[in-house]
Amino acid sequence: MSLAFDEYGRPFIIVKEQGQKSRVKGLEAQKQNILAARAIARTLRSSLGPKGMDKMLQTGDGDVTITNDGATILEQMEVENQIGKLLVELSRSQDHEIGDGTTGVVVLAGSLLEQAEGLLDKGIHPLRIAEGYEMASKIAVKRLEEISDVFEYGVDDYEPLVKTCMTTLSSKIVGRCKRSMAEMCVKAVLAVADLERKDVNMDLIKLEGKVGGKLEDTRLVHGIVLDKDISHPQMDKEIKDAKIAILTCPFEPPKPKTKHKVDIDTAEKYEQLRECEQKYFSEMVDQCKESGANLIVCQWGFDDEANHLLMNHKLPAIRWVGGVELELLAIATGGRIVPRFKELTAAKLGSAGTVKEVSFGTTKDKMVVIEDCANSKAVTIFIRGGNKMMVDEVKRSLHDAICVARNLIRSNRIVYGGGSAEITCSLAVEKAANEVPGIEQYAFRAFADALEAVPIALAENSGLDPIESLTAVKSRQVQEENPYLGIDCNEEGTNDMKKQNVFETMIGKRQQVLLATQVVKMILKIDDVISPAAYQ
Amino acid sequence: MSASGVPGGAPGILNEQAIEEKGEHARMSSFVGAMAIADLVKTTLGPKGMDKILQSMGRGEAVTVTNDGATILKSIYVDNPAAKVLVDISKVQDAEVGDGTTSVVVLAGELLRQAENLINMKIHPMTIIAGFREAAECGRNAIEARAMNNSSDSARFREDLMNVARTTLSSKFLTQDKEHFANLAVDAVMRLGDAPSLESIHILKKPGGDLTKSFLDEGFILDKKIGVGQPKRIEDAKILVANTPMDTDKIKIYGARVRVDSMAKVSDIEKAEKDKMKDKVDKIIAHGCNVFINRQLIYNYPEELFADAGIMAIEHADFDGIERLASVTGGEICSTFDHPEDVKLGSCKLIEEIMIGEEKLIHFSGVELGAACTVVLRGASLHLLDEAERSLHDALCVLQQTVKDRRVIHGGGCPEMVMSKAIDELAQRTPGKRAIAMEAFSKALRAIPTIICDNAGLDSADLVYQLRFCHAVPGSAMGIDVLEGKVGDMQDCGIFESFRVKEQVLLSATEAAEMILRVDDVINNSARVQTMGTGIHDSSTCLGL
């Protein structure tokens, strides 16, 4: 065992038996972890809020992504540090659970750790800090519940939902046409929502993008868009009252799984085989025809001969449709996925009002749009945009907005945005701090300070003086006893977020506080980091 | 700047080879990258723009000479992510409207150049974006108000189209023969009616002769040969278009194989095979066609059979050719031949072999779908023909857009000045910092006529400000007359552009500039293993030709 110093003067131990490992212990480990987490949080900090900036990420293959969605940034950053990975997970779990606020949660976690560092310097034991944070987070959540509002909306009166989605979208590049985008998202969610059970199946909403055109050309299709074309150039390009056979069997002679050989040794057998082959094709097509289908959607490809036979029988077909799309199609059209030609019956066909092949621009790209489906539950938002990065970013933004709308349907409690909720919680925690006996009191104060990181980042990103605007809002909140005051990012002239119609879902905010606290507790509890040395 | 450069010496957060650039650095590197791309294509803008030689790094070192922005950008290797954004918009412009691929990149570059100044003045990028958005909207409205729609008067509409085609071609390689090609392009597009689809215009390149020998053929020309011993000229042809193997029919049943134990049986099977083919040919003949065109090979044996039956058989037409032929002649593409009654045959008045230069081609005239036509380009070399094709393609695309949209506006920097003026006026009515961004936008727009002048070797500063003076009068149609080297009335010069193209240029460029402006952090993940050694570099200079 020997002790060495690295270039920054930090000691590290080289364990002889484990020469391949590097190890950091005790307070040093905690400091190092905190530093790493803060670095990640700092990267995301500038993406927070309606005036947040984007990050440009380039993968090893040279693909460029431009985004300000926290989860996407972290995922594509290829974080190597272990603690960094925890934060990536944190953002991802917020994304999966809530779908929005992925940046906020990381910023909050980073700021909690920053405050904890100060306490560690005071000599407070990390576990006491963790416990204090835990208690403080409960108070913050309680406060959130107190200030939350019930959000009224109806199936016909979806204006409030649109406004919420607009808040989410305003921080994205689609801000230019947030109104129409938000409406689209809400309509999509309402179309698939199960209002009785208060649930939304996100699988039924598909986001499909195609480069070209303008953002304004983006539209909501009550049906499905397949990025495929009709298999034969001369088949009908538009089918009314389509009866769709959804097949997972190829238009090919069967291929038994067992290994076999068909030996041909005479001319007669050769003839037979030939007839047999032709029969296969004609039978398949006949079976489709008999079932009454007038559109075939197949997961596999088909032979030229089959293709022509289908066309001859006036059966347009779409081939190579992916499994996910096929399932979606089955749900939307109320059809069944048929694995064998024999099992094809009229009852198993899906139906749709119109099926149309549309082409774009001067290129030959084509897509098939299936609309007015029997079960209009599946919807597609079809995105157009100036370039690939734009389309991808719009996809992500709309996903966030859709998630927000879904959360509102799940639980219609909201809190107000613009940092107002964080400021109120901070005030509540600070007030509670004085009543806490013991060391946790410090942790409470630290927690309260950490919560302020969100409004500070918002103000900073909006080009306002962060400390000045925060203190102003804070004092007004106390004086006017109005918990809805926040940072006026869009310079609309009022700090009252209720009037600005900036709100977020309560569960989203609660999740942010709880998740961030949890991760911070976890990081604080680590006092030894053993990692394999970098590969030589 | 590497990730481990975080103050305090944090352990490496990112992958060792990943590079992260933040704040000013990030912005600077993306600006520099984007402007480098814009400057690269800048010199090709306008009627006196220069061409670029692109040499491929691959085997053969193929050489392309072009001044088409999209083609240039497509071929160069770009490493800077911001530059990639610009390459991408240029590609989209190409796919969406076909022309204006250079303008869109140049305008985006100019916007960023202006934005850089504003950022140096400590204006928040979001404020700049807000100003740009409003300015773009205002500019669009301004040119929309100036757009002309002459579609009700067919003679004047044709003249518009001619002007648009001439303007597009004048900035290209075909500029000497622009009259000829403008006529050609307009004729081709006008034949297609109201909803033209460029697929029915077939461009055929044949080296030899000179550019003026290029012509528009009202029929369809297939670059293939007729089988030996078959009729070379057929009137009132009935055409069967097929996609079927005419060598030997493969057995499609899985696991089948031929195994014989004596030579006699081999010949039996061979005969069976031959019979099968004969059968197929008989079936095809039973359709009553006298021309048979197949996408795949036709072997000698069936070819001979066709020759015996007096049927013209053409093999190996590629897929595009087949599809086009089918749509042109109105036939359907067959792969099975059991139901002759169901199959629709294509028809045309006359099929004959013609000679262009030294090559024999098959000419279909009097086809069912009257719209289709073929443009045969002649020229001294293949490079020249390639460039001619690109230019003609651009012109056709623009015409197609114009026919769809029906609106045209003046060219020669006139719309830019109109927009710039409208935006300047808007800026005067806007309080606050956004107005600075608007002014910057208008300045960026004025850069376009400046570059056109510079490329033509004219005194840009003088001309552009003369132009601005002219545009102080509302409704002025003045623009830069590059050929004369002075400010002139675009209406008299006949310089027109498609409104749709201009609109798209404006919107795409603004969008791209906005995307790049919004970035404050660039994370460059490690390159894959093969480029390990060169993982770290200054991305602003990584622009390789």
From TrEMBL, chain A:
Main location: cytoplasm
One Gene Ontology term, aspect cellular component: chaperonin-containing T-complex
Gene Ontology molecular-function annotations: ATP binding; ATP hydrolysis activity; ATP-dependent protein folding chaperone; unfolded protein binding
Domain of life: Eukaryota
InterPro entries recorded: Chap_CCT_epsi, Chaperone_TCP-1, Chaperonin_TCP-1_CS, Cpn60/GroEL/TCP-1, GroEL-like_apical_dom_sf, GROEL-like_equatorial_sf, TCP-1-like_intermed_sf, TCP-1_chaperonin
Compartment(s): Cytoplasm
Keywords linked to the UniProt accession: ATP-binding, Chaperone, Cytoplasm, Nucleotide-binding
Subunit: Heterooligomeric complex of about 850 to 900 kDa that forms two stacked rings, 12 to 16 nm in diameter.
Described purpose of this protein according to its UniProt entry: Molecular chaperone; assists the folding of proteins upon ATP hydrolysis. Known to play a role, in vitro, in the folding of actin and tubulin.
Family: Belongs to the TCP-1 chaperonin family.
Protein name: T-complex protein 1 subunit epsilon
Organism this protein belongs to: Cymbomonas tetramitiformis
Automatic annotation (TrEMBL), chain B:
Entry protein name: CCT-beta
Pfam family, one: Cpn60_TCP1
SUPFAM superfamilies linked: GroEL apical domain-like (SSF52029), GroEL equatorial domain-like (SSF48592), GroEL-intermediate domain like (SSF54849)
Principal location class: cytoplasm
Highest rank taxon of the organism: Eukaryota
A Gene Ontology cellular-component term: chaperonin-containing T-complex
Record family assignment: Belongs to the TCP-1 chaperonin family.
Role played: Molecular chaperone; assists the folding of proteins upon ATP hydrolysis. Known to play a role, in vitro, in the folding of actin and tubulin.
Molecular function (Gene Ontology), one example: ATP-dependent protein folding chaperone
InterPro entries hit by this protein: Chap_CCT_beta (IPR012716), Chaperone_TCP-1 (IPR017998), Chaperonin_TCP-1_CS (IPR002194), Cpn60/GroEL/TCP-1 (IPR002423), GroEL-like_apical_dom_sf (IPR027409), GROEL-like_equatorial_sf (IPR027413), TCP-1-like_intermed_sf (IPR027410), TCP-1_chaperonin (IPR053374)
Compartments, as annotated in UniProt: Cytoplasm
PANTHER family from the UniProt entry: CHAPERONIN
Keywords associated with the record: ATP-binding, Chaperone, Cytoplasm, Nucleotide-binding
